Structures are given as C-alpha cells and as structure tokens.
Amino acid sequence: MLNKKINVFAVTCSMLAGLVFSNIANAHTGWILPSHFSISKEGGDWLTFDVTAANATFVFDKPASADMARVVMPDGRQERPGFVLRGKRRSVFDFEFTEQGTHKVLIKNAPRYITHFKAGRRDTPKRMRVNKVERAAMLPEESRDVETSVMFTRVESYITVGKPSVKAFEIEGKYLELKPITHPADIVAEEEVRLQFYFNGKVQAGVKVEIVREGVPYRNQQNQIEVVSDEQGFITFIPQIAGRYLLVAKHQGVITDDLFADKMRASVNLTFEAVLP
Amino acid sequence: MKIKNLSFLLVSLYLAMPSWANTIPDTATMEIQFELPSIKSSTYVRPYVALWIEDAQKTPVRTIQLWVGKDEWLKDLRSWWRKVGRNDPILVDAVTSATRPAGQYRFTWDGLDDQGKRVQQGEYTFHVEVVREHGGRNYLRQKLVLLEQSFSKQLSATQETGQITLNYQVK
Q1: ∠ CA(B90), CA(B93), CA(B94), 5° rounding?
Q2: ipTM
Q3: Is the pLDDT of residue A139 over 50?
Q4: Alpha helix (H) residue ranges in chain B
Q5: What are phi and psi of B154, to 5 degrees?
Q6: Which of A151, A166, A207, A266 has the fewest CB atoms within 10 Å, i.e. is most exposed?
C-alpha cells in the first residue's frame, strides 16, 4: 500500500518535473554554433556544429534536436547532415562542405501552436498546446480572452567555402526571415553591418533585435546591442569586438484568414562571426 | 550646358593631377626588408605570412609573398584570406610557398600588379599579416604614395615581426 502511494507520488513528481522542464525548454533560446565559418581547404572540409537551447549565449544547456538540421547549398538545394548525435546537453552534427560558395545552415523547426485563455471564477490565465481547430473541442465552457498563437523560430548560420555567394540568402516568404545585406563572410569588427528583415515575405519595420557576443560568463555585463528594424526592414549595427555573436530577432504580428492561429510570434536566431579588423 | 560643364570638369580634373593618370616609372621598384624574429617558445612553429599591396579603393593589387603550409590554413591569415585569397584560387596557387624559419629576408616588388601590368601612380597601402599557431597575429599597414620620387619607410617591430623597411627606388 505504502509502496503504491510512493509510486504514485514519484510518478506525479516526475510528471510535474517534465512539465516544468518542457516549459523552461521553450523559454530558452535555440542556437547553432559552427566550428568554423569559412573554409580555405581545396576540395572542402568537414565542419562540426553544436545545437542547443540556453539562456546564456553559447553556453550548452538543453539538448535541442539536430535531427532537422539542413544545409542550403550555394545553388539553393537542401542537403541533410551526415552525422547527427544527441547528447544530454547539446546535439551535434557534422557536414562535409565540398562546394564553393556560401551555405546556409539551419534547423528546420516545425511551427508550434499555443492557445491562451482565461477560465474559472478568478480569471485564471491558462494555456494549451493546441491550434484554433483543436481548441474548439478542448476549451472549457465559458473560456474568455481566447487567443491562439503560432510560434516559429529560425535557427541559422552561414558557412563560406572559398569565394562568397548569395543564392543561399533567398527567402521563403514565410514567418520572420533575415536577409544579409552585409555578407556574413564580410562581417568585420569595428565595421557597420546591415541586415534586412521580412515578415511573411514583406519587409518588416519594428523587428526587435538583440545581439550578444560570446563569453558572457566572463564579463560583468551582457553588453548587448539592441536595434529595431526601420521602415524598409533594415537594421545596422557595429560589432566593436571580433568574436562569435548570437543575433536574436523577434516579431509578433496579427494574422488574418488563418485557420490555425490568430497571432504569430516569430524569431530568427542567427549565429555569425565578426573577424578581426 | 550640362555637357559643357561636365567636359570642363573632366579637363580641370586632368590638369589638376596629370601624374595620377600615369603609371609609375619603368625603373621604379620597392625593396622590402622583412624579419621574422626568433621567438622562444616550447611550441614554436613557423608562422604564416602574407605581404600584399592594395590601392586607394582597398582593392588588392599584388600579393608579394605568401607563406603557408597547406591550403587548409590559408583562412588563418584572416585579413588576406577575406580580401584576396578566397576570391582567386588560381592566384593563390601561383604565389603560395612554404613557411620559413625566423631570420631576415629581402624581397623586391617590381611595381607590377597581379596581372603583370605596371601600376598607376597614386596612393597605395602595404599590408603584412603574420599568424603563428600557438602564437599571436600581427597585422601591419603602411600608406605609400607611389610617384616619381624615391622614398623609404620603416615599420617598427611587433611580437611576430621584426623591423620592416620599404625602399621605393626610382633610378
């Protein structure tokens, strides 16, 4: 009897822990960290990539999956990485870059739906992982302020073999997208960087962008760069110090005529390096 | 009226700096005295070295020396790779040579660009990038105005480079 009680308790505990964990995991920023950003070896070379989600820039924390990692080749076609490993605190994949030009490396995330609502006498805010179609059957009666968001994050980076190219920059026209104006292989410390944001295929003003250099645990301040995109979707900033940077761009937009959601919360997490001047 | 204005502008530009339209004299050369200092280190390896010239628009004109073991490491000469190497694999093959030990070296730049043409008179920048595995990197730049007069410039020593002397000679 006691045994059974303990078992039930243990199961409840682990369920709760699972719930807490997955919530935390959602709040973490996903990123991809290449071992190198440029290749000079003739015939190309293997590179390795870390994939994780964390609150501190480039500190390994949660084992985000790398199963959906893809490489956009210089001609625009997509390839899968050759080796994918999943660890406890990060995933890893390797890819052999043999074609000349600029590649875009990304994690092909699936959009996630979340429905927020209020219920009960005390207007308790609640949420469920369902879209607009699914929510009809699941919402309690007299739910109020019901709103379903679709969340989509692009996790990406650019690798250049030999001479840089731009075909891999082409946008899909969906969610939030970043188009390099300054080529990622030409980002130099102390020099201005210019990038452009698109939301559902159109240039987007008001995209909030935060850029943080690696090594946060070893300095007192984050020293983040904060910029907002202008009317044409452009941002400009100057990375003062050479190093690897994580750019996190976020945008929320109301979407109409969508079967599954009322609102879109989209982000782009780009890893880039600023080379020495 | 507009066309007249434009031609007037062009003529006055030509008169204002006639020498800029000319190439440097046929006899003009630049002698480069270059030194890799001996560095005491338990893991000393010969550094990668690139010496090159850029024009006033920062366009690479000539790679004078390139010492790298394998093409895999070309990218470690960060600035040279970004400005020159990655854009022209044939040039890289043509100029690359093995790394060299600490010591004094002397080169002569013949005043030609990578295509073998004599360069125009005007403003240029001499670049030196030295990168050592297990060691440091030094990247030096020196502005040069190449006209019809000889001159000499000196670049002070750094961790990875000894004193560098540039002698532009017009005989």
Answers
A1: 90
A2: 0.77
A3: yes
A4: 2-16, 78-83, 89-95
A5: -125, 140
A6: A166
